[in-house]
Specification:
With 491 residues, the chain is α/β, with parallel strands linked by helices. The N terminus is likely disordered. Helix content is 39%, strand content 14%. It is globular. The protein folds into two domains: 136 residues, Aspartate Aminotransferase, domain 1 (Alpha-Beta Complex); 258 residues, Type I PLP-dependent aspartate aminotransferase-like (Major domain) (Aspartate Aminotransferase, domain 2, 3-Layer(aba) Sandwich). α8 links the parallel β5 and β6.
Length: 491
């Protein structure tokens, strides 16, 4: 039975059978590397805006948005119109790197949105269809332009799944990549957080570059995410980003901003670097710029354009449908001030979600920027450790603006509780993502078109899911106290 027929005229039992059959065949035939399908056992058959309908007839609010790809949600009218326009025009659908009116319109709109100081002196390279391909191109570009080979990257980073991108990500090690501390408040590597933690992270980087015995030669470039997404939704402090821009510029190190997930209004500015006012030398762009279709580019300063013809190529860099969809998406976000709306809604969501930290010890932290939000789950039964008071001002080891109170480490991450929240959300018709260093962060990436009413529904369902998990954990802990494991009894 066809899926369309079962949904339209079949019984709920028929629909469920179709749903289960597809999932069973996926499990039998697809790679063990699949990820989202394991935590989200749904079979989407229709979608519009924030809403997905599964083959079993259930409806879901989608706050995964194709891992941030769907800036306008599913099947937005302006995107569908742009795609139909290309299909109806008879234009070629794949053109390698040839010039076309569709490509010209995309580049024009893209350059219109770029940070000041870059658009007037920029070049664009169309890469393969995925963000990781663009990261590879960016790394290759700065190595060719500088004649150097090393790359500076940050702990917790995620830049893709190809070899070079993985080397620059936080989960891999490569002697060509020097790993730097990424500032964060909740799990600050220096146990301090705030401006002092960010200052220490900047000093670490500066010392590494200026110390001839650091073991890190002058690098070809520095790559960073203005907000770490897969790393746990960690926004970089604006002052720290400006510091990275200054120290790289002073040392002639190209700065690469990975805006694959943060771009096109996601964080409350069109590009996340706009918050700090910096202009990177290279920007890596994908996901939302294709309007839900595969597209990836790098945009960079023209003086870095030292490539010879054919130095970086790819068969599927001429996707006309993606360029048309991308042009429509970029223009719609810009013309309708959706980045500003993302900032407003994001502030509201963060404020309401932060209330969860006051009611549930398992909610350790709520953070984010715009409509890129993370809720970190922690073990409520563990006691945070306490460090000593930072050295007083004037001490040889003092740092500026040292915290006056003893600093505390957060409770241990609780990936099992985060997974439980994700499951409870799914049962309530809400799709969320997990991320973070320990996969303990529940992530929200709703489309920029989410309505006020839908925002309320998302917050209500998420709060209900957290409540259910917290109560279950509390009840389970009480049960364990009343009925301890016999193997652990003494006497």
């Amino acid at each position: 039975m066809a899926v369309k027929e079962s949904i339209a005229g079949g019984t709920p039992g028929d629909a469920r059978a179709v749903h289960e059959g597809i999932l069973r065949r996926q499990s039998a035939r697809e790679s063990s590397a699949r990820t989202y399908a394991r935590a989200l056992p749904i079979v989407p058959v229709r979608a519009r805006g924030l809403t997905i309908e599964g083959a079993d007839g259930r409806r879901y609010l989608d706050c995964l948005s194709g891992a941030g790809t769907l800036a306008l949600g599913h099947n937005h009218p302006v995107v569908l119109e742009a795609i139909r326009g290309v299909l109806d025009s008879g234009a070629p659908l794949s053109v390698l790197d040839l010039a076309t009116p569709v490509k010209d319109a995309f580049i024009t709109e893209l350059f219109h949105t770029l940070p000041p100081g870059l658009a007037d002196h920029a070049r664009v390279q169309f890469c393969g269809p995925a963000g990781t391909d663009a990261v590879e191109a960016a790394l290759k570009l700065v190595r060719a332009a500088t004649g150097r080979s090393g790359i500076l990257a940050f702990t917790g980073a995620y830049h893709g799944m190809t070899a070079g991108a993985l080397a620059a990500s936080g989960s891999a090690r490569d002697i060509q990549v020097a790993r730097l501390p990424y500032p964060q408040d909740y799990r600050c590597p220096f146990g301090i957080g705030g401006p002092t933690g960010a200052e220490l992270a900047a000093r670490w980087t500066e010392s590494l570059l200026d110390d001839p015995k650091s073991g890190v030669p002058q690098p070809a470039g520095m790559i960073l995410e203005p907000v770490q997404g897969e790393g746990g939704v960690i926004p970089a402090p604006d002052d720290w980003l400006r510091r990275m821009r200054r120290l790289t510029a002073d040392r002639s190190i190209p700065l690469i901003a990975d805006e694959v997930q943060t771009g096109v209004g996601r964080t409350g500015a069109f590009w996340a670097v706009d918050h700090s006012g910096i202009t990177p030398d290279v920007m890596v762009l994908s996901k939302a710029i294709g309007g839900s279709l595969p597209l990836a580019v790098i945009v960079y300063r023209d003086d870095l354009d030292v490539w010879q013809p054919g130095a970086h190529a790819g068969t599927f860099r001429g996707n006309q449908l993606a360029m048309a969809a991308g042009t429509a998406t970029l223009a719609h976000v810009r013309e309708n001030a959706l980045a500003e709306r993302a900032a407003t809604l994001g502030t509201r969501m963060l404020s309401q979600l932060t209330e969860l930290t006051h009611h549930f010890p398992c909610v350790g932290d709520v953070r984010g920027r715009g409509l890129m939000i993370g809720i970190e789950l922690v073990d409520p039964d563990a006691d945070p450790a306490t460090f000593g008071t930072p050295p007083p001002a004037g001490h040889a080891d003092a740092v500026p603006a040292a915290a006056p109170e003893p600093t505390r480490t957060p409770r241990p991450a609780a990936p099992d509780l985060a997974a439980a929240v994700q499951r409870e959300c799914l049962q309530r018709g809400l799709i969320v993502e997990l991320g973070g260093r320990h996969t303990s962060v529940v992530r929200l990436l709703p489309p920029l078109t989410i309505s006020d009413e839908q925002t309320t529904a998302v917050l209500d369902r998420l709060a209900d899911a957290v409540t259910a998990v917290a109560r279950h954990h509390q009840a389970h802990g009480a049960h364990q106290q009343r009925h301890p494991d016999p193997a652990q009894r003494t006497g």
